[in-house]
Design a protein that fits this description.
With 534 residues, this protein is of the alpha/beta class. Helices cover 31% and strands 15% of the residues. It has an eleven-stranded mixed sheet, sandwiched between helices. A three-stranded mixed sheet has the order 1-2-5, with no helix packed on it. The chain has a two-stranded parallel ribbon with strand order 11-12. A hairpin with a 2-residue loop joins β1 and β2. α1 packs across α12, α12 runs antiparallel to α15 and α13 runs parallel beside α15.
Length: 534
């Protein structure tokens, strides 16, 4: 149902929104031939016209290519329509508009009021002597902020000889609104992402890519999106491999992990009936009775982004729909998912960032109060596993990360491995560069999104050991994209998850050592997966 949050809940979810509604839309600095780059390397042909990008070093870059029509006016909350053709040569040297969103000061990303935003960017090696593997990236940002152009893939494309596509998609209320009788309710952002995948199938050969070798990957909200597409029959013909980074296929999510008693109010996946009911309540708040879509489509973007009635609803993908028939966890448990090779993993300290920003568990008394409200008469069991010690906030952060990310993620890996080849990992650099604008009250360790500068070009300085780790991560990803197996010469063996093992083997990714291990016990996963505190 539609929930009106009290003042404390509003403050907490606002804090969560600052971080997880902007996570991995970090604003990190970025900047017609198919085979054998030549003088025409900056030109490529798409189904809707010719684009001219730029050549920079070893890569060609094509920014701001429309893959669907602007979803504004009468197309707001409609399935994506085909992009219009253009005459002549279209400039593709600048990214397209960001989808409508509020600015995120912690992530350092800009706001936008534009609904004309369904653009993608293609980065490909200059010299393409064969059809290259394709990596399609879904950006993070809690499904409420970010843009494909926030992350720079030039090194990834050149080093691994892959084509990288980054995508914009509708966010927040624009991507997940639902109402009775509205086709596509709660899934417009996922429809956008699938439209981009379909565009890749039809067009990527013109950029040197192999249209039959597409790896879908994403982090945070992008990782959640990958889980949705794994469970979406309409996506199965569009993906050949998948990577879930710090996302969850389960019902846990950052806010729910921080406040487990919130239940379905902030669930990662909402039943269609809940999404439609929320939409009806929001429509009434906006003065559009009986869900008058004409009235709703006339509401200014600025109001939809700032109205408290809209901001109070967690805009989650809807299941029980043609696009997403089942919750991803249920689809995985019953084998109704895309049986493609998978990589799935988290950072070691997923919860530290949100806890540092929320200011929760400042002392032992506050920590105990959080445990009591979250777990009731089972609080003692959790406290025994996570003693407050001298840093109760750090203990609470471990609960947030273990319950909300690490253990559900490892559980998914175990189940997935029963039916498809699955590789699990844990990013464990204890002192990665800080990519957010904050002064944390305690060391964050391998916080949520800390693996970003190891995959994408940034101006952040890595130590020599961190740079070697980055090289290995890119090599694992490139090989996985090429063959569905991350292993090869020059990198430590990464074994696939074996469903018969008591705990999944994960590849530890850290500057001091890379190799297989198990971490479920260290994260107290039996406590969470056995249902003792669910």
């Amino acid at each position: 149902m539609f929930i009106r949050l009290n003042q404390n809940w509003s403050r907490r979810i606002s804090l969560a929104a600052v971080v997880f509604a902007g996570l991995l839309s970090t604003g990190l600095p970025s900047s017609a031939s198919t085979a054998g780059g030549t003088a025409t390397a900056s030109v490529a042909r798409t189904e809707t016209g010719v684009v001219r990008g730029s050549v920079s070093g070893a890569v060609r870059v094509f920014d701001g290519i429309p893959y669907a029509a602007p979803p504004d006016g009468a197309l707001r909350w409609q399935a994506p329509e085909p992009a219009a053709s253009w005459p002549g040569v279209r400039d593709a040297t600048r990214p397209g508009n960001r989808c409508a969103q509020s600015p995120n000061p912690v992530a350092g990303t800009a706001g936008s009021r534009s609904e004309d935003c369904l653009y993608l960017n293609v980065t490909t090696p200059v010299s393409t002597r064969r059809a290259l593997p394709v990596l399609v990236y879904v950006h993070g940002g809690g499904l409420s902020s970010g843009a494909g152009s926030d992350l720079e893939p030039r090194r990834l494309a050149a080093r691994e000889q892959v084509v990288v596509v980054t995508v914009n998609y509708r966010l927040g209320v624009f991507g997940f609104f639902g109402a009775p009788g509205l086709a596509g309710s709660g899934t417009f952002a996922l429809q956008d992402q699938q439209a981009a995948l379909a565009w890749v199938r039809r067009n990527i050969a013109g950029f040197g890519g192999n249209p039959h070798n597409t790896t879908l990957f994403g982090e945070s909200g992008g990782g959640d999106s990958v889980c949705a597409h794994l469970a979406s029959p309409t996506a199965w013909p569009l993906i050949d491999r998948a990577v879930v980074q710090s996302g969850t296929c389960s019902d846990a999510n950052p806010v729910d992990a921080l406040f487990p008693g919130a239940g379905a109010t902030v669930a990662s996946w909402q039943p269609l009936s809940t999404v439609e009911h929320n939409g009806s309540a929001v429509a009434a708040e906006l003065g559009c009775p009986a869900v008058d879509l004409g009235c709703l489509r006339a509401v200014p973007v600025s109001r939809l982004l700032t109205d408290k009635a809209v901001a109070a609803v967690y805009w989650s993908p809807a299941y029980g729909t043609p696009l997403l028939p089942l919750r991803p966890a249920a689809a995985i448990a019953t084998g109704r998912f895309a049986h493609v090779p998978l990589m799935i993993g988290t950072t070691r300290d997923e919860g530290t960032l949100l806890t540092a920003l929320s200011g929760q568990a400042k002392d032992a008394v506050a920590y105990r109060d959080l445990l009591s409200r979250a777990f009731g008469d089972r609080a003692d069991t959790v406290a025994a596993a996570y003693p407050a010690g001298t840093q109760p906030a750090r203990a609470w952060a471990a609960i947030v990360g273990d319950r909300g990310y690490v253990c559900p993620n490892q559980g998914s890996a175990h189940v997935l491995a029963r039916q498809t080849r699955t590789y699990a990992y844990e990013f464990a650099d204890p002192a990665p560069p800080l990519i957010f604008h904050l002064d944390p009250p305690f060391p964050l360790g391998a916080y949520h999104a800390s693996d970003v500068p190891y995959l994408w070009d940034t101006q952040l300085q890595l130590t020599p050991a961190q740079q070697r780790l980055s090289d290995r991560i890119l090599d694992y990803l490139g090989r996985f994209a090429a063959s569905g197996n991350p292993n090869g010469a020059g990198t430590p063996l990464w074994p696939a998850v074996h469903p018969g093992d008591p705990a999944p083997v994960v590849q530890r990714l850290a500057p001091d050592a890379v190799g297989p291990t198990t971490t479920a016990a260290a994260h107290h996963c039996p406590l969470w997966t056995n249902g003792a505190t669910s």
